Amino acid sequence: MSLSTAMFRTRLAHTARRQLPARRWYAAGVSGDVGKDAKAGQPLLPGIDALQLQVNKTASPKQLPAPGAPLLFGRTFTDHMLKIRWTEQAGWEAPQIEPYGTINLVPSAVVIHYAQSAFEGMKAYKRADGNVTMFRPDMNMKRLNNSAARLALPTFDGEQVIELLKQLIRLDKEWVPEAPGHSLYIRPTLIGTNGTLGVQPPTEALLFVICSPVGPYYPTGFKPVPLYGTTEYIRAAPGGTGAYKLAVNYAPGVVAQKAAASAGYQQNLWLHGPEHYITEVGTMNAFIVFHDADGGLELVTPPLDGMILPGVTRDSVLALARGHAAGARIEGMPVGKKVRVSERPVTMEEVSEASTSGRLVELFGTGTAAVITPVEKIGYQGSDVLIPTGPGGMGPISGPIWKHLTGIQNGLIEHEWNVVV
């Protein structure tokens, strides 16, 4: 072990003892929240322990992207990655940070054959004072645990993984872009790795994290996108997996995306049932703004009914909008108009009628990558439903909320959602 590695582990242990709860254990074969009482007669297995982190720094650091060079989403990756293995017999092993590289899997690995894979998308930002912060990582850990449980993958202590994410980001801190609108995209992934064919709970798994510096989603300014109202395919159904961030949810959407592109639209709008309920915008949550009968505005998003992914950006937009409605005003939001926030079903018929009558104010999608994406029109049943867009591409609700939310993420606005690395 090198002197630098030994010093790194010493600092890690000293920091973690101050910040982390005692190591948690869980019963073999028990899914759900880590740390609950074991079932009678089942052995206790170790959970993830950040104090056991082992670091193997790369001997060949990559060249950092040149200042001002475009950073395309998901094309460039940092020097290191985090890996934590799990087995049914031994529980979670010691976490490892090692050089970014390939993952060896046997050809019969269950992730390949049965799509036993869950993942997250989150970001870290470099502030003007030099500090790096993650945005609401607790939400991502909660959702990844929920996704893992849905696939019978092992669950874990999210606080421990957040501490490990901090260590990974600190090690690759130079990769966090400083330019406005830039960030470090973080991709935690959990897969089943045992090589035994047969549809059953995995007996071996791997949790790994890779990081990628990314630039603004819209480098030349906001461009409202045209959507294609997809009725030929569905993204999710009641009782299915739509509410979880699983790899299996994304591959079937590629053919629908290709169909939308061939028809001249940028993304598809997922519609469900004979009523054509709006569910999601491509891989984003959907928001619609209507004029209210009393002169106010209604911000609407479909409810979390088991088909909708509980997006972190979705939750953030709702919280900010409700805060504004309760008196915590957001700069730029309409003055003198009451903003009502609703989580309710919305059909394409309602949106189409509102567009025709002038009651429709705007429609946009929310997600980690783009934060907010405005929509200009929806191709639906042979014609286009036109969506109003404001100056700069955004509307009266999406624009101010985007500015406020990104201000929080970039550290211009102090907020409890930011976690210092």
What's the quick description here?
One of its GO terms (cellular component) is mitochondrion. This protein is 23% helix and 27% strand.
Structure description:
The modification N6-(pyridoxal phosphate)lysine is found at residue 245. One of its GO terms (biological process) is L-valine biosynthetic process. GO terms for molecular function: L-isoleucine-2-oxoglutarate transaminase activity; L-leucine-2-oxoglutarate transaminase activity; L-valine-2-oxoglutarate transaminase activity. There is one protein chain. The protein has 421 residues and is an alpha+beta fold. The protein folds into 2 domains: 3-36 and 44-60 and 67-214, Aminotransferase class 4, branched-chain amino acid transferase, N-terminal domain (D-amino Acid Aminotransferase, Chain A, domain 1, 2-Layer Sandwich); 225-414, D-amino Acid Aminotransferase, Chain A, domain 2 (Alpha-Beta Barrel). The chain is built from 8 helices and 21 strands. The strands form 3 sheets. Strands 3, 4, 5, 6, 7, 8, 9, 10, 11 and 21 form a 10-stranded mixed β-sheet that branches. The chain has a 6-stranded mixed beta barrel with strand order 12-13-14-15-18-19, surrounded by 4 helices. The longest helix is centred in the N-terminal third of the chain and has 17 residues, at 3-19. It is globular. Residues 1-23 and 27-40 have low confidence and may be disordered.
